[in-house]
From TrEMBL:
Residues under site feature: Part of a proton relay during catalysis: T45, Y107
Residues that bind pyruvate: T46, V201
Name of the molecule in the record: 4-hydroxy-tetrahydrodipicolinate synthase
Assembly, per entry: Homotetramer; dimer of dimers.
UniProt family annotation: Belongs to the DapA family.
InterPro entries in the cross-refs: Aldolase_TIM, DapA, DapA-like, Schiff_base-form_aldolases_CS
Gene3D superfamilies noted in UniProt: Aldolase class I
Catalytic activity: L-aspartate 4-semialdehyde + pyruvate = (2S,4S)-4-hydroxy-2,3,4,5-tetrahydrodipicolinate + H2O + H(+)
Pathway: Amino-acid biosynthesis; L-lysine biosynthesis via DAP pathway; (S)-tetrahydrodipicolinate from L-aspartate: step 3/4
Gene name linked to the record: dapA
Protein's cellular compartments: Cytoplasm
Its EC number(s): 4.3.3.7
Organism the protein comes from: Actinomadura sediminis
Alphabetized UniProt keyword annotations: Amino-acid biosynthesis, Cytoplasm, Diaminopimelate biosynthesis, Lyase, Lysine biosynthesis, Schiff base
Length: 281
């Protein structure tokens, strides 16, 4: 059984000459796990999943599968789509993963019943656990606490990124369903864990895996201290559409070879990269 606890590093997909750079990806994945990440997320928002071909997605999963097996940790794969049939197809193609991160169907803004049915259909189409990925500022579909709990009924857990600790977040965490709630906004990892989240999925952990892993373990004054110390880093990393700043920092540190992102993402402004590097713990 997979334990969704601690920090899962959401990996960038490095490119070199326009192709997926498997060597850089392997290096990054191992670095995150050496730093103490509880597992890896491939093909999340950070992985530019929407900009990869099906073949590239499989190559990314193969590299991450090998590294996760070496370290004995779980691999979660992003596998969402706007439509239910497409999401099911993508979920089935992600058989190399241990669990799936399935985004709330975006753009169409289906009804709440439609969203619950979507997750029930995807979850029942695969054998592995499905984590629902709620990110209303990206999907355009806000789910109130009541609907989040209905979704949670049909999946194994939820990655919750509302961009704030709002009333729905408080109600979701207070419900204490026994199923894991993972924080998806890096800045809210610590507050959400204090309120009952079991961990988080964070892009920032690619850069500072040790600090984020420690943050997820620290309930005392040290946790609050680390939270405060990491906020400037998170702020700089998300100052531009993710993962541009993150990739530039990783390339600057030699973790990946090339900072390239795919259009319509663009190279970041140098001042944000500098700010992020200066904020490294
Ligand atoms: O990679 C992801 O998926 C993540 N999602 C959040 C987002 O929607 O930006 C942020 C998190 O750091 C990683």
């Amino acid at each position: 059984m997979i334990v969704f606890r601690g920090v899962f590093a959401s990996l960038v997909t490095p490119f070199a000459g326009g192709e997926v750079d498997e060597g850089s990806l392997e290096r990054l994945a191992a670095r995150c796990l050496d730093g103490g990440a509880a597992g890896l997320v491939a093909l999340g928002t950070t992985g530019e999943a929407a900009l990869l071909t099906p073949d590239e997605r499989i190559r990314v999963l193969s590299v991450c599968r090998t590294v996760c097996d070496e370290y004995g940790v779980p691999l979660i794969a992003g596998a969402g789509a706007m439509g239910t049939a497409a999401a099911i197809a993508e979920a089935r193609e992600s058989f190399l993963a241990d669990a799936l991160l399935v985004v709330v169907p975006y753009y169409l803004r289906p009804s709440d019943d439609g969203v619950v049915e979507h997750f029930a259909a995807v979850a029942s189409s695969v054998k592995m656990p499905v984590i629902a990925y709620n990110v209303p500022y990206r999907t355009g579909k806000r789910l109130a606490a009541e609907t989040l709990l209905r979704v949670l009924d049909v999946v194994a857990g939820i990655k919750h990124c509302p961009g704030a600790i709002d009333d729905d977040t408080l109600a979701l965490l207070a419900a204490d369903t026994g199923k894991p709630v993972l924080a998806g906004d890096d800045a809210y990892l610590y507050p959400m864990m204090r309120l009952g989240a079991s961990g988080g999925v964070t892009a920032s952990a690619c850069l500072a895996p040790g600090a984020f892993a420690e943050l997820a373990r620290s309930w005392d004054e040290r946790g609050r201290e680390l939270h405060g110390a990491l906020l400037p880093l998170v702020d700089a990393l998300f100052a531009e559409p993710s993962p541009s700043v993150l990739k530039a920092c990783l390339a600057e540190l030699g973790v990946i070879d090339d900072p390239a992102v795919r259009a319509p993402l663009r190279a970041p402004r140098p001042e944000n990269v500098e700010r992020a590097l200066k904020a490294l713990p």
